[in-house]
Write a structure and sequence with these properties.
The protein has helices spanning 19-30, 46-57, 70-84, 99-111, 127-134, 156-162, 185-197, 255-265, 276-284, 288-311, 338-349, 378-391; strands spanning 33-34, 94-98, 117-122, 138-143, 145-146, 152-153, 167-173, 201-205, 231-236, 248-252, 315-317, 324-328, 351-352, 354-355, 369-373. By secondary structure, it is an alpha/beta fold. The protein has two domains: 10-37 and 289-391, Aspartate Aminotransferase, domain 1 (Alpha-Beta Complex); 62-286, Type I PLP-dependent aspartate aminotransferase-like (Major domain) (Aspartate Aminotransferase, domain 2, 3-Layer(aba) Sandwich).
Amino acid sequence: MVALTDPLTHKLAGFGTTIFAEMSALAVETAAVNLGQGFPDTDGPAEVLDAAVAAIRSGINQYPPGPGLPELRRAVADHQRHWYGIDLDPDSEVVVTAGATEALAGALLGMLDAGDEVVVFEPMYDSYQAGIALADARAVPVLLAPGDDGRYTFDPSELTAAVSERTKLILLNTPHNPTGKVFTRDELQAIARVAIDNDLIVVTDEVYEHLLFDGHRHVPMATLPDMRERTLTISSGGKTFHTTGWKIGWMSGPEPLVTAAKTAKQFLTYVNGAPFQPAMAIGLRLHDAYFEELAATLQTARDHLVAGLRSAGFVTFEPEATYFTTVDIRPVDPSGDGMAFCRALPERCGVVAVPNEVFYARPEHGRHLVRFACCKRLDVIDEAVDRLAQGFSR
Ligand code: PMP
Ligand code: GLN
């Protein structure tokens, strides 16, 4: 019998199974506390959940319009104006997607040609490298690394040097997974300068826009001078409304960029989640107090996690935003092998975390780093950090 040759496209060689699927399966198998994959363990606002149930009951169960239900597109436009002063035409400048993930894939597949280059900050959310690979393009990484103050930042000269004749776009994520960094206005200005000088598009993933701590402010790239016309902004409701399984996202920006991304997007899912779309519109229109409380609650969880990780002996980089805290494992595990550490952690301590090396184009930069999520109930976080403290006191 002739063996079947590996059917996987060369573009996805080496991608394997995502770390989130692997680590969440391990958590279930070992009954460990899952601080790996970032999903909350409590439900979101009742108004939003009730609106989805009502939508199903009232028959919003067929294909929504290609660009998404008008009421959600209007809510996205109103949200961008309310929070950031960005004006959008909901009919031509907003498209609803199957989560931010599909918006990212649509943008990359809709804008990149084979051999094009994408400047991207590493570490990065894992779908970025896969999306760029599917487009047969090349990721050119710029390193985010902690400075002496523990704050992640980049070297502007590395950013300038990363741009070549083949660069088509810069892919940005702020607030940032997995570092918890919020790009400052000055940092964004430096990136905008490079984009403008080299006539590049910026695709910006802002899914953690409302999960900010300690008074940090989210500055959307599209609000910087001369950037609106070259910026495609992506977000989703999974984090903001504790509905990661609904996969309702959106992209917004100037019509040519939205149209390019939508052209690819329409052949990925076409549309998704009809009854969740009006519910998301209700969420986006919730009172400011909801968003403030969301961030404050998560900040308390962050504080529990950071304090616990520090007392368990890790070098801990305090996040400014997001679900995630990164630690350097070397004080408790001199091998500094984060992947091996995470694979052994459920057996050793009954806790699951994610090795940051999967978020790097050059994994050696993240080998000793591991990510823990704080989007869990306080008793769950406390239990996890107790287990870690016990596991590493021996
Ligand atoms: N971007 C970043 C930075 C993320 O962390 C995630 C994961 N939640 C996504 C995009 C994907 O978002 P969604 O679940 O809306 O597809
Ligand atoms: N964004 C979440 C994380 O980084 C989960 C993503 C996923 O499961 N694909 O953990």
